[in-house]
Amino acid sequence: MTTTTKIPIRDVELCLWETLGDRPASSDQLIYLHKDRAFLRRLEAVAARIQPKQMIEIGILDGGSTIYWQDRFQLQRLIAFDIEPDAPHLRRYLERHNLQGIVRANYAVAQDDGPALRAAIAKQAAGPFVDFIVDDASHQHAQTRTTVEVLLPFLRPGGAYVIEDWAWGHHASWPSDLWADRPLMSPLLSELTLICGRGSGVIDRIEIDPNFAVLWRGEAFLPQNGEFRLADHYVARGFSVAP
Ligand SMILES: C[S@@+](CC[C@H](N)C(=O)[O-])C[C@H]1O[C@@H](n2cnc3c(N)ncnc32)[C@H](O)[C@@H]1O
Fold this sequence. Notes:
Bound molecules: S-adenosylmethionine
Number of strands: 10
Number of domains: 1
Radius of gyration: 18 Å
Helix content: 25-40%
Number of helices: 6
CATH superfamily: Vaccinia Virus protein VP39
Structural class: alpha/beta
Shape: globular
Strand content: 15-25%
């Protein structure tokens, strides 16, 4: 028997959508959050280690995770992005609770649009760095890689950068014909591992589980102006990280 997990927050219930199939429509009272219980519990445990106050989230969908992160950690600023033009249930939730100053939702922004991401951060961030970044957007190699190049410089030393669903192409629950022609995310994980392995303080540690990878930021200075390139921070010695 399956049970539905609902998480009450203020005047909404967040409903975990725990399968790959299409979710039902959200409403102003019930908003879907696109993760299963174990996934959310483990991800929350990562965030709990840093008790974030400033966060960036890529991939809003209906706003379930955006509402969850803001409420769970009483975030002072959450800058969120999605390529879609609106998330109406989230928008109305933020209006009802006067949270628009805290949660800054940016719509119609592609995750690999560096100038748009940087412009939003310059206007909306509460300081030079955030504590926690979660990429739950396209799950595509090129876009996700560009987002790391754009956003990692905005993560404070000791902060965590999460790439969700990095293992979709390898996961037991993933149908073999789904996204069969798309580049896997695993070469990106290898590339990030090489950066960690160099030991220069860009990424101090990487943790992976079947649902997500966590990049723990080191102390190295990284330019926030768009000049940070992953390839400048490792020595591959012939090891291929090509997608
Ligand atoms: C898996 S859903 C996010 C789920 C949400 N974080 C949650 O837990 O409920 C992925 C979202 O990423 C957005 N997205 C997909 N490709 C994108 C891209 N290239 N740039 C920005 N957002 C993108 C989609 O529109 C969708 O809303």
